[in-house]
Amino acid sequence: MLLKVQNLHKIYKSGTHALKGVSFEVEEGEFLVVIGLSGSGKSTLLRCINRLIEPTSGIVEFNGKDITHIKGEELRKVKMQIGMVFQQFNLIKRKTVLSNVINGKLGSLKTFESIIEKYSDEVYSEAYKCLETVGISDKAKVRADALSGGQQQRVAIARSLMQNPKLLLADEPVASLDPATSNSIMQYFEKINKELGTTVICNLHFLSLVRRYATRVIALRAGEIIYEGSPRDIDENWFKTIYGEEAEEVEIR
Amino acid sequence: MSKQLEVEAQLKSFIEENRRREHKYGLLQAILLDIFFVFYSILVVQRAIYYKYFLDLRDLPFSWTQIIIIFFISIVIGTSWALTRTSLSCKLFGVANENKTTKWTTELFGWFLFDITFIAGWIVTKISIVSLFSSDGLNGAGRLFSALFHPQFGIFDDALFAMIETIYIALVATLISIPPTLIISFFTARNLMRENKITFAIYYVLRIILNFVRSIEPLIWAIIFSVWVGIGPFAGMIALLVHTIASNAKLYSEAIESIEQGPVEAISATGANKVQVVWHAVVPQIVLPFLSFTIYRWDINVRMATIIGLVGGGGIGTMLMQYQGLARWREVGLIVIMIAFVVWIMDYISAKIREAIY
Predict the structure, then answer these.
(1) Which letter does DSSP use for residue B52 in this model?
(2) Is the pLDDT of residue A253 over 70?
(3) Which of A116, B83, B286, B314 has the maximum number of C-beta atoms within 10 A of its C-beta?
(4) Is A159 within 8 Å of B18 when comparing Cβ atoms?
């Protein structure tokens, strides 16, 4: 068991009750997709897993260890094992692609070494390897903001690969990309999942992508899990329960 | 299932409790503000309007007992007024009862405060149209202006040298200010310091010190330092330096506060430590604004350095003061024209540089 979430609650200071007792488990090697409307708690859930935010109550167990309320050095060690990809890519725009990818390695580098930016050859070759995995090594010396959205997201994936993550979280990784690019980004996630054996948890909106890539699906509504199972079993009725009565499925090709 | 309900009930009471506390706090603030408003109105009406205008007293009578009595009266009126939940402050802090009385009192009292403040201001500034257009005054001004527009070029080389001194004072003050400002600004950025109580305390203390230093004008710093290190360019430079650090640290830290949070989140998600997050996610986003602020500050410092010279900070200002003391207005005219020219050039250059780096 790689990840075990039990009765997880998150209440923000504003009083928003984002997660209301979410429980699920993730096996190693799974490709789990979380679906649900905007504001249903998907992003909060991911951020509770890699502890960018602290859950209010409940338990998050990663690799057999309770990480719900850990702090400091211990928390850093856990974060190093969990990669994360964001909707807005979150690259450092003024830096080159290469140094953005190396940023993924910061946790295991010495502070001084990382500040003067003198990295060993191994780090560089590792960075190139990660860039090759997402097929973008020819852009290594280009400034990150000179790339297109899809390319930036590939760099962001390469950055998280730099961590050699056991678990890769993706918070709506294709929500600001066009359909064709979305599909190719999802193919990279699939490749990482299948070839490197990395477990992936991904927030998605489009059901066609969900059916194609997910091995298992969780649906959230208003902070609660209302569906858990195979992507093929989401029929018209389930779809309406998840997205509301007026929702209609849109095909993207 | 019952356990879940229990948790939910607990959370609800927690939120409710929070709201009640906030409400209480708001009422307390409203009471204090109302006391102040009443105190202020009584004092302004009595001292500025009644004593100064109606009785036309030159020396206002002052007694602590009277002020303390007024203060106690305002405490009684302010508190009881706020407790009716219809006062202006209740409205401001969002704890007022929404009814007609509230609407009327807020509007009336708001206008009352504004009016007495304006009237008192008018009386205190001694605004007088007569002296602005008296023939004596106009003649004097005319003489001065005609001298200023016929500058005496005999002292041009001295003035040029003093001008260069001024520009260097400004430049050195700006350059030396950069490293300390950089360090301070990270400790005064709210988003980096709010995580635990110790760092937040440091943030708070530093902010207070900076506000204090900034609130003292460079002119006054120059007076202090001309006593401390002696009259001359060095005193002027330190005065500018102190003020530059205090004001740029605020601008810098505001730039840090307004960075995109995404990259910071992404870098800290990789398991990087605090220093690395700052260096790799915060710094790249603030280099350009910092550069821009610093160049702009050089421009401001040139302007300030001329003023600081007036109180013994060296450079062109000191020279201006000397000729003004001798009433040699044609020399003063030359110096004023040179200052205007240099300030204009600096303004232009700094604007161009700032445009170019963005």
Answers:
(1) I
(2) no
(3) B314
(4) no
- Return the domain boundaries, chain B: 2-128, 152-357
Report yes or no: A209 and A228 within 8 Å, Cβ to Cβ: no
Name chain B contacts of A83, Cβ cutoff 8 Å: 269-270
User: Among residues 154-173 of chain A, which lie with CB inside 8 Å of chain B?
Assistant: 156, 159-160, 162-163
Distance CA B275, CA B294 (A): 24
Question: For B152-206, what is each residue's pLDDT tens digit?
Answer: 888 888 889 999 998 899 999 999 999 999 999 989 988 878 878 888 899 999 9
Distance from CA of A238 to the nearest CA of B (A): 23
Give the percent of chain B with pLDDT over 90.
Answer: 25
Reported ipTM = 0.90
Distance between alpha carbon B277 and the CA centroid of its chain, in Å? 32
For residue B271, give the nearest of A76, A92, A115 by CB distance. Answer: A76
State pLDDT tens for residues B119-142: 888 888 887 788 888 888 888 888
Q: Is A35 on the interface with B (CB under 8 A)?
A: no
A153 touches chain B (CB under 8 A): no
CA distance B238 to B182: 18
Secondary structure of B175-208 in HEC code, one letter for each residue: HHHHHHHHHHHHHCCHHHHCCCHHHHHHHHHHHH
